[in-house]
Amino acid sequence: MDFNDTAEEAKFRAEARAFLAANCAPKGSDKERLSRRLSTDEYVKAAKAYQKKKAEAGFAGITWAKEQGGRGLPPIYAVIFNQEEAKFDAPSQPFAIGLGMCVPTVIAFSDDATKDRYVAKALRGEEIWCQLFSEPGAGSDVAASKTKAVRDGDDWVINGQKVWTTGAHFCDFGIVLVRTNPDVEKHKGLTMFIVDMKAPGVEVRPIHQASGGREFNEVYFTDVRVPDKNRLGEPGMGWNVALVTLMNERLAVGGSTGPDYAEIFELARNMPGPTGQGTLAQDEAFRQKLADWIVKAEGYKLSKFRTMTALSRGQTPGPESSIGKVINANHLMDICNTAIESMDHYGIINDGELAPMEAAFHQGYMWAPGLRIAGGTDEILKNIIAERVLGLPQDVRVDKGVAFKDLPSGR
Amino acid sequence: MNFDFSDDQKSLKDEARKFLTDKAGAKVTRTVLNDAAISYDKALWKSVAEMGWLGAAIPEEHGGLGLGRLELCVLAEELGRAVAPIPFSSTVYFFAEALMLAGSDAQKAAHLPKVASGETIGCFALSEGPGAPTAASIQAKFDGSTLNGVKIPVTDGDVAGWAVVVAKEGSGVSLVLVDLNQAGVTRETLKTLDPTRGHAKLEFKNAKAERLGAAGQGWELSEAVLDRAAVLLAFEQVGGSQACLEMATDYAKNRYAFSRQIGSFQAIKHKLADMYVAIEVARSNAYYGAWALSTEAAELPFAAAAARAAGSDAYYLCAKENIQTHGGMGFTWEVDCHLFYRRAKLLALQAGGPAAWKEKLVKRLEQRNAA
Ligand SMILES: Cc1cc2nc3c(=O)[nH]c(=O)nc-3n(C[C@H](O)[C@H](O)[C@H](O)COP(=O)(O)OP(=O)(O)OC[C@H]3O[C@@H](n4cnc5c(N)ncnc54)[C@H](O)[C@@H]3O)c2cc1C
After folding, report:
1. pLDDT value at B139 more than 90
2. In a 3-state reduction of DSSP, which class is residue B256?
């Protein structure tokens, strides 16, 4: 066991830090506060410029093969970069889904010409990607997708609706899972395509989120033509393609976002305790909770180190990484809830000017419910752990051996 | 970075598991449980000594194998998994660690070889009543050569030959080394929640004793011993938790209700998934503690407290949900679930309870931030 960087890792970390210091504002700085007020357009523009610099400096696609414009380094280097990047206000969000999930799927399932067309541009931040899987009737049960594609000469014609598509309103391309054969079992009649989000017939309608933002969208497809060369994998094999994306998704979304124990501890030191005696940080009940958060946050961080160690030894990430989201989403919710409640009446105020620190907890409180759902709900992730890690039997399936068109569906 | 055990350490683990599956396990633990007159399994103790486990982390010059703390962690996990009924933790994690930490050359030379060979069973006597002990609450008194006072409960105090005792000396606290087989010591065996490990009340009346470490340093030393033991106990806790999860998973696959495997019910699946998550959190924290222990890192007090808190919580969760998953069977004497349920609580309290360790964890975070 050795937590220290090797000589090469230390060198890489120093390079990363120098790059970040030159290109981003540190967290908590005045400049960061300003950047939080950017409009979506301004933020996306800043993200593209930042991604370009990252690519030029060799910090994009750190683990990707050199042929794909990456650096071909072991995953530990990506972890190091992420650790350093987390200390800065880096506008990297718009690329998370595309570079984390969509483009790796494109690389895995397409020919050289297709890769040449898309991969480098995505890496340099010139084009942004989204993931069009969920539908109004198919979220947890992604394989129940109804949006359909019908072959027409060299093209496929797509009709239907996707929903909850993060970033669709500023994306250039997406990977879309559609039904190409309703007469077979649901998992067997799906196909995956690359779709041009600016193509005629694609209509993106932003959704106003519970958290107040408008990051995800409904996407309508009306006679959208997609050339056959944009197909990823064989017709009817879309589920296998989607699984690769979802596997990457689980690795990508596990990370915690928002305030952690360090922040609530900081808050608690300057906050009166519930009895009016001493500070909240001195309150016994609070301290017991804080200890639980430390244990969970450290445990999760360290579990990730174990995964990385396994990866660096050539093992593939298993479904074990599903624990990340189960821990983090609830953890974030619990921390933010406690922080807000600790302020008593004042906790109601969500105004960065009047209560600068509290605003982060409000943001976390409002975001956490989404985190428990996005990328697989708590329930689905626990099923994955139970079935794929512990080997328990699958839930009773009523869809086995039934053609998709004959399956019952509710609202 | 390399955050895992080495291949050698993993094969030690495999060997240990094989051995314990053969020679230990529930059957042996039950022999001790069912017979009030015995509190540990002598044959197992002897074999463990012969294999060198007792001296795994003791330097070769003192008769040990001179491996490291990481190897000891590996063994601890397997002993926890096997709910081994031997005074291993008292002797190795507490007594030997205290000697290695604070002992003079003469004290080490006198005791460590006997620990390594299995001749000496040692124990650590801290508690004197309900509640978390503090430097101020210690009543036992050492005057430079004799010890007076009462310690209750002392894990393995009924069978140990020697004890490290936390006692007041003048206005401070010191650690003292006491031969328990002398006229000034009386022992009373205690009934406890986990009869597979012996416990006693020890009473000292002008017992001959010698100081271990510097006068007045006893509280700091005691904390340091507890930190070391905490990491090792955390591995026993992880081992026990893992055994519970495996038992429960196995049962859930084979037991049918409503014409289905109960493991196909989501309420059961999610229960087991929660156990898995808790174990992973505990395991990762334990690994970090192992690293800190084996490298003498400044992070040890923080890492030990986190490992301890995570291990105690995970084992409790896994032990109780293992019974629940087994239904009525799980509540019978014959099924092994309760061995783990008992041991979970013993391990959670043996080095101080979860609430006290959580408080320590936060205090250590404060200290770290202040530094
Ligand atoms: C912030 C955010 C961003 C998102 N971004 C994207 C995106 O970019 N692209 C995309 O394709 N999708 C995206 N999604 C969609 C997300 O993947 C789905 O919302 C999610 O998978 C849940 O599906 P659903 O909303 O249809 O809920 P449902 O599947 O209807 O679930 C409703 C409830 O039923 C439970 N449930 C369902 N099935 C089971 C079961 N078998 N056992 C037990 N309980 C069950 C669920 O856990 C949940 O509690 C995003 C969602 C959010 C919140």
Report:
1. yes
2. strand
Task: Measure the CA–CA gap between A73 and A8, rounded to whole angstroms.
Answer: 11
Contact list in A for residue B284 (CB cut-off 8 A) is 298-303, 305-306
With a 6 Å cutoff on the Cβ, whether A216 touches ligand 1 is yes
Q: Where are the beta strands (DSSP E) in B108-250?
A: 122-125, 141-142, 146-155, 162-169, 172-179, 185-189, 199-212
Distance CA A135, CA A186 (A): 15
B88 has a chain A CB within 8 A of its CB = no
CA–CA dist B287, A128 (Å, integer)? 40
pTM comes to 0.92
Residue A252: CB within 6 Å of ligand 1?
no
Q: Which CB contacts under 8 angstroms, 24+ apart, belong to A147-152?
A: A147/A176, A147/A177, A147/A178, A147/A179, A147/A221, A148/A178, A148/A179, A148/A180, A148/A182, A149/A178, A149/A179, A149/A180, A149/A191, A149/A193, A149/A226, A150/A180, A151/A180, A151/A228, A152/A225
Cβ within 8 Å of B, A 247-266 = 265
Q: Which residue, B142, B145, B122, is CA-closest to B218?
A: B142
Contacts with B368 from chain A: Cβ below 8 Å: none
Q: Where are the beta strands (DSSP E) in A230-334?
A: 231-232
> A374 CB under 6 A from ligand 1?
yes
State pLDDT tens for residues A49-99: 999 999 999 999 998 999 999 999 987 888 889 889 988 999 999 999 999
What confidence tens digit (pLDDT) does each residue in A204-258 have? 999 999 988 889 999 999 999 999 999 999 999 999 999 999 887 766 655 556 7
Could you tell me if A157 lies within 8 Å of chain B, comparing CB atoms?
no
Considering only CA atoms, which of B49, B123, B45 is closest in space to residue B91?
Answer: B123
Check: CB of residue A299 under 8 Å from CB of residue B282. Answer: yes
At A94 the three-state DSSP class reads helix
Per residue in A18-51, pLDDT (tens digit) is: 999 999 999 877 777 777 778 889 999 999 999 9
Burial of A96 (C-beta count, 10 Å sphere; 0-12/13-18/19+): middle
Q: Which residues of B touch A326 (CB under 8 A)?
A: 273, 277
Q: Once rounded to an integer, what is the mean pLDDT over residues A116-126?
A: 96
Nearest CA to ligand 1 atom 2: A374
Distance A228 CA to ligand 1 centre (A): 29
CB of B20 closer than 8 Å to CB of B183:
no
Q: Phi and psi dihedrals of A108, rounded to 5?
A: -70, -25
pLDDT, tens digit, for every residue of B243-286? 999 999 999 999 999 999 999 999 999 999 999 999 999 999 99
* Residue at token pair 């708590």: A378
Please choose, from the candidates A360, A357, A168, the residue with its C-alpha nearest in 3D space to the C-alpha of residue A271. A357
